[in-house]
C-alpha cells in the first residue's frame, strides 16, 4: 500500500515542490541531506525528468526506491530544476518512427557529443 501511495505522490504535479526547495536550499546541510535521500527514494522532480523531453528521459526509471537506479542500472539523475518540456519525442528523427528510439537509443548521446557526425547518420536513415 505504501508503494502505491508513494507512486501517486511521485507523479503529482504540485506547484510547490518540496524536493526542489530542499535541493536548492541555502543551507548546505539541507541540500546535502536531500541529495543523500535522493539516492534512496525517488522524489517527484526526479521522476518528472523521466517523463520529460530532456536527455534524462531514460533516467530515474523507478518511482519508489532510487537505489536500483543508482547502484544497479546507473540511471540515477538528480536535477535541481523542473523539466522544461514533457513528452516522448526528443529529437527530429523520432518524429517519423515510434520505434526509432528503441533501435537508435545512443543517438541523443551521439548528437550531443558529435553533432555533425550525428546529423550525417540521421540523414542517411
Would you kindly provide a written description of the structure presented here, covering whatever features stand out?
The structure is a single chain. The protein is mainly α and 125 residues long. The chain has eight helices and no strands. It is globular, with a radius of gyration of 17 Å.
How would you state the average pLDDT, rounded? 76
Strand content: under 5%
Query: What composes the largest sheet?
Result: none
Distance between the termini: 47 Å
Number of helices: 8
Please give the number of β-strands.
0
Low-confidence stretches: none
Kindly state the percentage of residues in helix: 40-55%
Radius of gyration: 17 Å
Q: Helix/strand-derived class? A: mainly alpha
Overall number of domains? 2
Note the run of SSEs as H and E: HHHHHHHH
Name the shape in a single word. Answer: globular
Task: Compose a concise summary of this entry.
The chain is an all-alpha fold. Helix content is 49%, strand content 0%.
Strands, helices and their partners?
Layout: H1 2-10, H2 18-23, H3 28-38, H4 44-50, H5 67-73, H6 100-103, H7 107-113, H8 115-124
Features:
125 residues; mainly alpha; 2 domains; globular
